[in-house]
């Protein structure tokens, strides 16, 4: 099922209150996969600092932040960050989630498509990668749907929200493999 009543918004248009609300509403949904975002957004005051910090990162081209917004309600329903940018090697990582109530509607896939295009065509990077927990099958499906190749499993690479070390599945997509849709 597709949901088309949404748009991409950028960090300069995001209020800390609405990002805090998105995180708070999805706290259990993202607890194991976004521990730093949760920690940095566990109060409105910390969320204000988090948004300001990431705004500065974007101004310095150290990270880029995209948000899905429901057009009808104006609520935030998703988040994607372009992070771990290494201009020397010409690569970056994507991290993303969508509100639990909007999963399975094509929003994450569309956000990832737009982010890949942004990374290859605007940032002119050579590689985009996704590292996801072995248990996050939905994220692995997103990577494979977008023609990422599984490059390996990184053992005990990620500390989840419960403090446990988990293996990460590493997926990469080279610009030479990218096919714009």
List the helices and strands and how they pair.
Layout: E1 6-10, H1 16-25, H2 27-30, H3 35-39, H4 44-59, E2 64-70, E3 76-86, E4 91-98, H5 107-122, E5 127-133, H6 137-145, E6 149-159, E7 165-174
Parallel strand pairs: 4-5
Antiparallel strand pairs: 1-2, 2-3, 3-4, 5-7, 6-7
Helix pairs in contact: 1-4
List unreliable stretches of 5+ residues: none
Portion in helices: 25-40%
- Tally of extended strands? 7
| Mean pLDDT across all amino acids | 95
Q: Write out the strand line-up for the largest beta sheet, numbering strands in chain order.
A: 1-2-3-4-5-7-6
- Assembly annotation: single chain
Structural class: alpha+beta
Report, as a whole number of angstroms, the end-to-end distance. Answer: 19 Å
Radius of gyration from the alpha-carbon trace, in angstroms: 16 Å
**What is the tally of helical segments?**
6
Q: What fraction strand? A: 25-35%
Task: Summarize the structure in short.
This protein has 181 residues and is an alpha+beta fold.
Characterization of the model:
With 181 residues, the chain is an alpha+beta fold. 33% of the residues lie in helices and 33% in strands. It contains six helices and seven strands. Helix 1 packs across helix 4. The longest helix is centred in the N-terminal third of the chain and has 16 residues, at 44-59.
List keywords for this structure.
181 residues, alpha+beta, seven-stranded mixed β-sheet
